[in-house]
């Protein structure tokens, strides 16, 4: 991979991964709730979900052709539903001895699997792939940056909790995460409506 292409790939990937979104909001909540070390396994779940989401999109990039727009709209619509359902559950979460953590591995997996960022990675950032060596290099860079970005968001949550001396009610954490997810859902909803209007009107 030429140096200029590598710099562009690192810059684009790093910026997109660190931007706020549903996965990062959940990682921050997990960091605030359970601390840095206990939240780290969620990073592995995120990587698995991104790999499953991006691989087929990248493999069939050329075959999708004109169907990319429709596929993107479907993916965003599914993500919108998932985000709203999760926001509702987080908002209604109540602390109690029998309750598990607010953020679970399956939640991270499904939210990341349908994260619209995967479309940008597969259709705009990874291409063009000039060979196996180029692809492997991009995969390793992506994985490293994804780990760093996830750790940064978990760390932000941990710092937030430490400033309140760890005394953040679980219900408050849930509602904070739900609010962030709702804001992202509004963005997704506007995007889906705009794309549908451009496609069918």
UniProtKB/TrEMBL annotation:
Bilayer-spanning residue ranges: 6-27, 39-60, 66-88, 108-127, 139-160, 172-194
Keywords carried by this UniProt record: Membrane, Transmembrane, Transmembrane helix
Protein name listed in UniProt: Threonine/homoserine/homoserine lactone efflux protein
């Amino acid at each position: 991979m030429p140096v200029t292409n590598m710099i562009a790939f690192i810059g684009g990937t790093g910026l997109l991964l660190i931007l706020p979104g549903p996965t990062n909001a959940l990682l921050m909540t997990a960091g605030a709730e359970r601390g840095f070390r206990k939240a780290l396994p969620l990073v592995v779940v995120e990587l698995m979900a991104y790999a499953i989401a991006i691989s087929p999109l990248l493999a069939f990039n050329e075959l999708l052709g004109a169907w990319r727009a429709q596929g993107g709209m479907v993916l965003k619509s599914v993500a919108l539903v998932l985000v709203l359902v999760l926001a509702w559950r987080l908002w209604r979460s109540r602390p109690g001895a029998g309750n598990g953590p607010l953020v679970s591995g399956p939640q991270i997996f499904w939210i990341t699997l349908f994260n619209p960022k995967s479309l940008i990675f597969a259709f705009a950032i990874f291409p063009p792939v000039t060979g196996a060596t180029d692809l492997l290099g991009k995969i390793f860079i992506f994985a490293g940056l994804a780990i760093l970005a996830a750790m940064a968001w978990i760390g932000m949550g941990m710092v937030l909790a430490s400033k309140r001396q760890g005394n953040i009610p679980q219900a408050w954490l849930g509602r904070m995460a739900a609010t962030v997810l709702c804001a992202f859902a509004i963005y997704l909803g506007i995007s889906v409506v705009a794309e549908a209007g451009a496609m069918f009107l």
